[in-house]
Design brief:
The complex is a heterodimer of chains A (about 300) and B (about 425).
Chain A lengths: L1 H22 L8 H37 L3 H7 L11 H9 L2 H32 L5 H13 L6 H10 L6 H25 L3 H9 L4 H12 L1 H16 L3 H6 L8 H7 L8 H21 L1 H8 L6
Helix pairs in contact in A: 1-2, 2-14, 4-14, 5-8, 5-11, 5-13, 6-8, 8-11, 9-10, 11-15, 13-14
Chain B lengths: L1 H28 L13 E5 L4 H16 L5 E5 L2 H13 L6 E4 L3 H7 L8 H4 L9 H6 L11 E5 L2 E6 H7 L7 H13 L3 E4 L11 H11 L2 H8 L8 H13 L12 H9 L3 E7 L14 E4 L11 E3 L2 E6 L6 H11 L2 H10 L5 E2 L10 H11 L3 E3 L2 H4 L5 H13 L4 H16 L2
Parallel strand pairs in B: 1-2, 1-3, 6-7, 9-12
Antiparallel strand pairs in B: 3-10, 4-10, 4-11, 5-7, 5-8
């Protein structure tokens, strides 16, 4: 779709220059046909290159899908890269049942959904206060939040693990929720602050005249207006939290509490990896994020320019 | 000699520093949460055997343990890579898991030194473990405290594996000595087969260290090998140089892809007959299709110097327990059960069955391969574990770097060994 839409104007604007090139070898021939041939050539060329590029991009995904439907004996005898000699869905069963992906997927949802709700709830409140009211030190607060995001999370692994232990929440799902909320909120506040600042002050003043308190303004005026930003952020944060592995293995140690990413690396053996089961597990682990992406595709694109124009 | 003394002093200072920090961290972690521990309840068994097959085998052991009444156990399987990196955290945490799958020898010793492992002298005196061989007893005793800290349950062996049908097709036989081995390589090469597969690419560069281990124990002997890994000799000594001179004779026969593909792909190459043989541990059988298993055979790493006592590489696996466990009696009960012939046979039955049980009365799976492997180890004068298990996980990467570099640029061996010594020195002196 996009390909055809973009090629049309390109070939149109490039037409004259192109005709001069094409016309050089046969100046006497009919002037229109080289133009048509030239533009047709460009279109095919474009489609061919773009098609090849997307095929190249899709190749790893296809390889994972194909590998997930092969038997282990086939892979062991012919290698991962060979043409498939077998077809089975048993690896999905192995990943789902023996590999414990079912339990892990539930854990992932148990962590991800509350985390998204809590962190966006907290972040929108903070952003509302920081952007709509003249609080002292609000710039400093925002900078601290942004600064926290620049810190590489790896250096906090040991403090977080020790702290969760001292607090007695080590190896609990809500420890993971707490950590994820803590590390996400700063960034969400920053983005939402930028968005809420752009909402015209008159709307809020009108609400004040109508007798609305801060809570009502937040809940009934600003929050509905910030919906596009919230939708984009929730789609983004869902994928981030769902795909996180680092914090999960830092604060959890029981296999029945691990999220799907951790159970995916658990499918690897100590020495030998069953590539078909791992591929099937990857497909299962990727399915929810793909579903969220397809559902909220529009907001993803909107999310990209959230911070761009203020 | 002076350099050695200085490094030794530094080592002691470093060990002291490590000890102090361990002490400090134990003070921190023994605050509030420690009293809130859930004593009672099942014994947690933290396992790194995460492949579906091994996991099922572990589950059946735990189920059998639970069924016999008394203490209960809870299996907790973690990806092996996660386990390796998190093990120090587990052991130093205030409410640690009770029992862990891990390795005896110097790897366990590094934790025993910090007093993190439960002393197991009393269960070693019990009926389950008293029949174990003296070599295993020595292996499981901590050098610093003199206490036994480990319960071994299985071991596997390394050998030069090949496909019987391929050897028959090429008309070649198992070699005994180094010269016969080189002849065999020559013959295979003339047939257009890469004689020696390796598989030290990708994420398994450690496979190459078995060549170093074996050449060293064949040329210099197992005692020298262990001392070298413990930092009592230098990697740029002439003895080590001799190892690489021997390796140079075999190097032209290595698969040129050896350092490009991981060992699982190298196994496929061996099965397809693109390479002739491969020095590998029995775990590689898990990477072979079931119908090829009967066709696999191995021979002992060839004898280079008949005057050197024959040692073999046979890594032992088993369990240790945390010193901070709150369920000492139940933990020991589980460890005693794991040491029984019954539990070990159960594990072999449900797993891929290429390992050997440590209990003298436990039956192995009885396949010709396993019988041959058992004979190999039992006839050996000495047994080594593996490079990282005889030294430390920290030293392993230095070997990987050096050996992969050597295989790529063998002429630079002098500078490679100097670099290796320098990086090993840093680890020993920590």
């Amino acid at each position: 779709m996009t390909a055809t839409r973009t090629t049309a104007p390109v070939s149109g604007t490039d037409g004259p220059a192109r005709r001069a090139d094409e016309a050089a070898p046969a100046p006497a021939a009919a002037p229109r046909s080289p133009l048509l041939r030239g533009s047709a050539l460009r279109t095919t060329g474009f489609h061919l290159t773009a098609g090849l590029l997307s095929a190249l991009w899709l190749l790893p995904i296809v390889l994972v899908l194909v590998t997930s439907t092969r038997t282990f004996d086939d892979i062991a005898a012919h290698g991962v890269g060979s043409w498939p000699h077998s077809f089975t869905f048993d690896s999905f069963r192995q990943a789902w049942v023996d590999g414990g992906q079912q339990r892990a997927l539930i854990n992932s949802v148990l962590v991800t959904v509350p985390t998204v709700l809590i962190s966006l709830g907290l972040a929108s409140m903070a952003a509302f206060a920081l952007s709509r009211y003249d609080l002292p030190f609000r710039r400093v607060l925002l900078l601290v939040m942004l600064g926290g995001n620049l810190l590489p999370p790896q250096i906090l692994l040991i403090p977080v693990s020790k702290l969760s232990e001292v607090l007695g929440i080590y190896d609990r799902l809500y420890a993971l929720i707490g950590v994820q909320v803590g590390f996400g909120v700063g960034f969400y506040v920053f983005v939402l602050h930028g968005f809420m600042r752009a909402i015209p002050g008159e709307i809020q003043q009108a609400a004040v005249i109508d007798g609305a308190g801060p809570w009502q303004i937040y809940w009934r005026v600003i929050l509905p207006l910030a919906r596009p930003a919230l939708a984009a952020l929730s789609a983004l944060s869902f994928t981030w939290i769902f795909n996180d592995l680092l914090w999960a293995i830092t604060v959890l140690r029981t296999d029945s509490r691990m999220p799907v990413t951790a159970s995916l690396i658990g499918l690897q053996g100590q020495y030998v990896s069953m590539w078909n089961v791992i591929a099937a597990g990857s497909v299962i682990a990727a399915a929810p994020t793909v579903a969220v992406f397809l559902r909220f595709q529009r907001h993803f694109v909107a999310g990209l320019n959230l911070g761009a124009v203020k | 000699m002076t350099a050695f003394n200085a490094s030794r002093r530094r080592f002691l200072v470093g060990a002291g520093a490590v000890g102090t920090s361990a002490l400090l961290s134990s003070c921190v972690t023994q605050s509030p949460a420690a009293s809130g521990g859930n004593s009672g309840g099942p014994v947690t068994l933290q396992s790194n055997l995460s492949s579906p097959q091994a996991k099922t085998a572990m589950q059946s052991i735990v189920a059998a343990f639970d069924k016999r009444g008394g203490a209960k156990a809870q299996l907790n399987t973690v990806a092996s890579e996660t386990f390796r990196t998190q093990l120090p955290t587990y052991l130093t945490s205030a409410n640690p898991p009770d029992v862990y799958t891990w390795y005896p020898g110097s790897v366990a010793e590094s934790y025993a030194k910090k007093d993190l492992l439960l002393g197991l002298d009393d269960i070693w005196a019990g009926p389950e473990l008293s029949g174990y061989s003296d070599a295993l007893k020595k292996l499981c005793t901590s050098a610093s405290s003199g206490k036994k800290v480990f319960v071994p349950t299985s071991y596997y062996w390394w050998g030069v594996f090949y496909r019987k049908s391929n050897f028959a097709k090429w008309g070649v036989k198992e070699p005994k000595t180094w010269d016969e081995f080189l002849d065999l390589c020559d013959k295979l090469k003339s047939k257009g087969v890469a004689p020696i597969g390796l598989g030290a690419g990708g994420d398994t560069p450690w496979v190459a260290s078995t060549w170093f281990d074996y050449l060293n124990i064949r040329v210099n002997g197992a005692t020298y090998h262990r001392e070298l890994l413990a930092g009592k000799h230098r990697f740029d000594d002439p003895e080590v140089r001799k190892v690489f001179d021997t390796w140079d004779q075999a190097r032209p026969f290595f698969d040129p892809n050896g350092t490009a593909i991981p060992f699982q792909d190298a196994t496929t190459a061996l099965l397809q007959g693109r390479t002739g043989m491969m020095l590998i541990g029995t775990f590689f059988a898990d990477a072979a299709p079931k119908d090829a298993l009967g066709d696999l055979d191995f021979f002992q790493f060839p004898i280079i110097d008949p005057k050197v006592p024959v040692a073999e590489e046979a890594p032992t696996d088993g369990y240790f327990a945390s010193a901070r466990t709150k369920r000492t009696d139940e933990t020991k009960e589980l460890l005693r059960y794991l040491a029984t012939a019954e539990a070990q046979e159960l594990y072999l039955k449900s797993s891929s069955g290429t390992t050997l049980p440590t209990h003298p009365d436990a039956k192995d799976t009885g396949t010709p391969l396993v019988i041959k492997g058992r004979k190999l180890i039992e006839s050996a004068a000495d047994v080594t574990q593996f490079f990282n298990r005889d030294s430390s996980d920290a030293l392993q990467p230095t070997a990987d770097t050096a050996l992969v570099h050597y295989l790529a640029k063998p002429k630079e061996i002098g500078s490679i060994l100097t670099t290796w010594q320098r990086s090993a020195q840093q680890i020993w002196s920590q």
